[in-house]
Amino acid sequence: MGYKHLKFLVNSVFLVTGGAGFIGSNLCEAILNLGYKVKCLDDLSTGKQENVDMFMDNPNYTFIKGDIKDLAICMKACEGVDYVLNQAAWGSVPRSIEMPLFYCANNIQGTLNMLEAARQNGVKKFIYASSSSVYGDEPNLPKTEGREGNLLSPYAVSKRADEEWAKQYTKHYGLDTYGMRYFNVFGRRQDPYGAYAAVIPKFIKLLLNNEQPTINGDGKQSRDFTYIENVIEANLKACLASSEAAGQVYNIAYGGREYLIDIYYTLTKALGKDIEPNFGPDRAGDIKHSNADIGKAKKLLEYDPEYDFARGLNEAIGWYKENL
Ligand code: NAD
Which among 5, 84, 28 has a CA at the least distance from the CA of 246? Predict the structure, then answer.
């Protein structure tokens, strides 16, 4: 369980793209805490300078401000790197419907540039962020790798395309790639601000400010909300996985399912707020239920998530109370 016992070669170098964002900065922190070197490549488009500044005093940390749409920058960033953890991308289903061309350039061409740069620099393992959105309208639960439906948004297309490109790089060039299909990740440093903020930090922020949150739809949608510590474990275990497990995609979740309305009332109780939610229309491109079969990651990556939803939510609430 967990990742704190994992061992890499002493001089291992990790490159985290999107390292100024929510998941990326948590990966940087975990790797630095284990004592290894981290390069962070980020254009700060949705990431935050403060997620870089917090590590600047650590001699094992280097920050490169740059865009993965620029192959030359990707090439430079991959020099001397053992493991790439490619997180850089723009998230949000509704935003992708508003700006499809950008999502293609940023999320697909950007990752392709990183794959090419990793290959040319002899990187050992290429782990990349995919998403549960690749299951599209497939109605069956739990979601299982190999049983995908029609894609419902440009964002989902971008993640699915990344998976296919990564498989090509394993097949033709022998680059060990591992796709992490994250399911609704939450935890410390996830951005609560803006129109495209994820639901847990957004609700916590509004409730702390005594404002009334709006639930899209009836609140009876459910998701496999996954605490950030489990995502860190999955990424680091993938770095140590066998080459036989490469060229594949893995559900990264806890394997549970929480209803939005229940989360809402858990939060009001935990924060001591007596505020009823607003209910708004359903969001385009959203699915009703999501829940992952994590058997494949357990078997091939030895992924064994440590944090169930309640434990993760408790930690997240504690963090936001102190930091918002
Ligand atoms: P985030 O927005 O907090 O982080 C993304 C980071 O990537 C930001 O720091 C941003 O500045 C950077 N970035 C974006 N485009 C870039 C570019 N062209 N060049 C360099 N840097 C760039 O988002 P996050 O929630 O931490 O997501 C990380 C990854 O995980 C993304 O690929 C996202 O699609 C994926 N993902 C996240 C979730 C989730 O629940 N948070 C779920 C599924 C998949």
Answer: 84
Q: For the domain that residue 139 is a member of, what is the CATH number?
A: 3.40.50.720
The predicted model scores a pTM of 0.98
> Is residue 299 assigned to a domain?
yes
- Beta carbon of 69 within 6 Å of any ligand 1 atom: yes
> Running DSSP on this structure, what letter comes out for residue 241?
S
Beta strand 248-252 with 125-131: parallel, antiparallel or unpaired? Answer: unpaired
Residues 56-77: tens digit of each pLDDT: 999 999 999 999 999 999 999 9
What is the residue range of 163's domain? 13-183+228-255+289-306
Q: Please confirm, yes or no, whether 135 is among the known catalytic residues.
A: no
For 291-321, write each residue's pLDDT tens digit. 999 999 999 999 999 999 999 999 999 999 9
Phi-psi category of 150—alpha, beta or left, where left has phi over 0 and alpha has psi -120 to 50? beta
Single out the catalytic residue among 36, 128, 155, 182.
155
User: Quick one: which of 257, 266, 196 has its CA closest to 225?
Assistant: 257
Is the CB of 179 inside a 6 Å radius of any atom of ligand 1?
A: no
